[in-house]
Design a protein that fits this description.
By secondary structure, the chain is α+β, with helices and mostly antiparallel strands. It has a domain of 121 residues: 2-Layer Sandwich (Alpha-Beta Plaits). It is built from four helices and seven strands. The structure holds iron/sulfur cluster (SF4) (2 copies).
């Protein structure tokens, strides 16, 4: 290619690129000034897990290990224990409960297989995405971190109502 043709093609490419850039300037902006402004999470977002309790506050997990078996990353660690006390005094809904329930977020790929596998609806994904830490060891979350009764909702995000269409620009209408 001659030098003139080279310059012509390069100029054409720059003009084409700038035209796309300029056409976007008048459009609505999607940048969020996080964490000054809360991020809007989609209802089906998979964040840090929640371990659920029943209406009496008893842990729903019966330590059946199905979630750990379904996990492709092998990042769930459970130690089962028996709680022979009367049902109203137990830690969980059943005699058997998870004495230890850890998830290593250094390995978790947020695939949701554990949630699908659970027969007791004991584990779901929450919305917490703020999992950055300085030490890899801190990515290991224990039952105390995961129980829904112990987690605190961060003010840095909100969850979109299902009728809200916050990412409509990416959806086919
Ligand atoms: S979301 Fe996937 S990778 Fe993470 S703990 Fe559950 S099954 Fe394992
Ligand atoms: S979270 Fe669900 S699947 Fe996992 S051990 Fe507990 S009851 Fe079983």
């Amino acid at each position: 290619m001659s030098l003139v043709a080279d310059i012509f093609e390069s100029t054409k490419a720059i003009i084409k690129g700038m035209a796309v850039t300029l056409s976007k300037i008048p459009q609505e902006k999607w940048t969020v000034q996080y964490p000054d402004d809360p991020v809007t999470m989609q209802p089906r977002y998979r964040g840090m897990h929640l371990l659920h309790v029943d209406e009496l506050g008893r842990e729903k997990c019966v330590a059946c290990f199905l979630c750990a078996a379904a996990c492709p990353s092998d990042c769930i660690y459970i130690v089962a224990a028996d709680d022979p006390r009367a049902p109203e005094e137990r830690t969980g809904v059943d005699e058997r409960f998870a004495e230890v329930y850890n998830i290593d977020y250094g390995r978790c790929i947020f695939c949701g297989f554990c949630v699908e596998a659970c027969p007791k609806d004991a584990i779901t994904h929450g919305y917490n995405f703020e999992l950055s830490v300085y030490s890899r060891a801190d990515l290991l979350k224990t039952k105390d971190d995961l129980l829904i009764t112990k987690q605190q909702q961060s003010s840095n995000y909100r969850v979109a109502f299902s009728e809200e269409d916050v990412d409509s620009e990416y959806k086919e209408v």
